[in-house]
Design goal:
This protein is mainly beta. The protein is 12% helix and 38% strand. The protein contains 4 helices and 20 strands. 30% of the residues are buried.
Length: 289
C-alpha cells in the first residue's frame, strides 16, 4: 500500500465553548453527545481504541465492528455512549483511510469519505442537524447541546474555534446589586453583580458580563448612577469584587442564561438575556425560573 506512514497517535481536535448563538451556510451542526471521546485505529486486522488522553479502551464489540469494515486501515473519531444499554460508537470524523491522510481536507470532504463507510452497529454515523436554530432544538430534546463545525475547516490537533460547542443553558431572573467599571473600549459598565433572595438574605450569585449591546450598556449605567449607594446590598456576599465595583439599590431585575451553578453557588458562563420590568425584586429567588 502506498501513502504516508500509519501514525501511532493523532491529537484529537477539541471544540471551544461559546455563548454566542448563530447559524449560517458555512457552519454545520451536530448533537453534542454526553459520553466519552473515542478514537479507533485500525491497521490490517489490528484495532486499538483510545480515549482522548490516549488511554487504551477495551470494547470488544466496537473493536470487532471496526475490524469488519472493508478497509485496510482507518482512523475514526467519535463519542462512546451507553444510555442504559450496550455501548454505541457515534462516529463523526475520519482522519485517515487506506494510506490517505484526511486531516488537511475540509470537513465536508471528510464527511463525504465517512459516508462511504458501511458502518454497522454498534457503530453509527453522527448526522448533521437540519434546523434554523439547532441549539433550541437541542434544549427542547433534552440534549447536552450542539457542536457547530466549519464546513471548510481542516482537522486541527488542538482546541479550535473551527469547532464551537453550544451547551444548553438554564435561565433565571436575578436582581442587580452592583456593577463593575468598563475596561478598554467598552462603554457604560463592565459586568452586572447579581443576586437573589433566600430566607431573608440577599445572596450574591456572581457576575454577568456578556449579552449587552452598546445602547443597553449606556442605558443601564445611567439608571444605576441614579441608584448608587455606598455599601454592598448583598447580605451573603462571598466572592464580591474588591476593585472597581459600584453598589446600587436592588431594584432592577434581569433575565440571565447560564450553564450551571458552581460548587460555591455562583453562575458559570452567564450572559444577559434582557431586563425584566415585569418582575418584582422581592419575588426573585434561586428556585424561581
Amino acid at each position: 500500500m502506498t501513502g504516508s506512514p500509519f501514525p501511532e497517535w493523532l491529537e484529537p481536535m477539541a471544540a471551544t465553548l461559546t455563548q454566542t448563538r448563530f447559524s449560517g451556510p458555512e457552519w454545520s451542526f451536530e448533537r453534542k453527545l454526553d459520553g466519552i471521546r473515542l478514537l479507533a485505529y485500525r491497521r490490517g486486522g489490528d484495532v486499538t481504541l483510545y480515549s482522548r488522553t490516549r488511554r487504551e479502551q477495551h470494547l470488544p464489540a466496537v473493536a470487532e465492528a471496526v475490524a469488519g469494515l472493508p478497509v485496510e486501515e482507518v482512523i475514526l473519531d467519535g463519542e462512546l455512549t451507553w444510555g442504559g444499554g450496550p455501548p454505541r460508537y457515534h462516529v463523526f470524523d475520519v482522519l485517515r483511510l487506506d494510506g490517505r491522510e484526511l486531516t488537511g481536507q475540509a470537513l465536508d470532504h471528510r464527511r463525504g469519505v465517512l459516508a462511504g463507510l458501511p458502518l454497522e452497529p454498534p457503530l453509527e454515523r453522527v448526522p448533521a442537524i437540519d434546523h434554523p436554530r439547532p441549539w433550541e432544538l437541542a434544549c427542547r430534546a433534552g440534549w447536552e447541546g450542539v457542536v457547530a463545525k466549519r464546513r471548510d475547516a481542516p482537522y486541527e490537533h488542538r482546541r479550535s474555534k473551527h469547532w464551537l460547542k453550544m451547551k444548553c443553558e438554564a435561565t433565571r431572573a436575578f436582581v442587580v446589586g452592583g456593577f463593575t467599571d468598563p475596561q478598554g473600549s467598552r462603554a457604560g459598565l463592565g459586568a452586572l453583580l447579581v443576586g437573589y433572595h433566600q430566607d431573608g438574605e440577599f445572596v450574591f450569585a456572581g457576575k454577568v458580563g456578556t449579552g449587552f449591546d452598546r445602547r443597553l450598556l449606556t442605558e443601564l449605567r445611567a439608571r444605576f448612577d441614579a441608584a448608587e449607594i455606598a455599601d454592598p446590598p448583598f447580605t451573603v456576599a462571598s466572592g464580591l469584587p474588591r476593585l472597581r465595583a459600584h453598589w446600587v439599590r436592588p431594584e432592577v431585575v434581569v433575565e440571565v442564561a447560564f450553564l450551571e451553578w458552581t460548587v460555591h453557588g455562583k453562575l458559570r458562563h452567564s450572559r444577559l438575556l434582557g431586563v425584566r420590568p415585569d418582575l418584582s425584586p422581592a419575588d426573585v429567588t434561586r428556585e424561581a425560573p
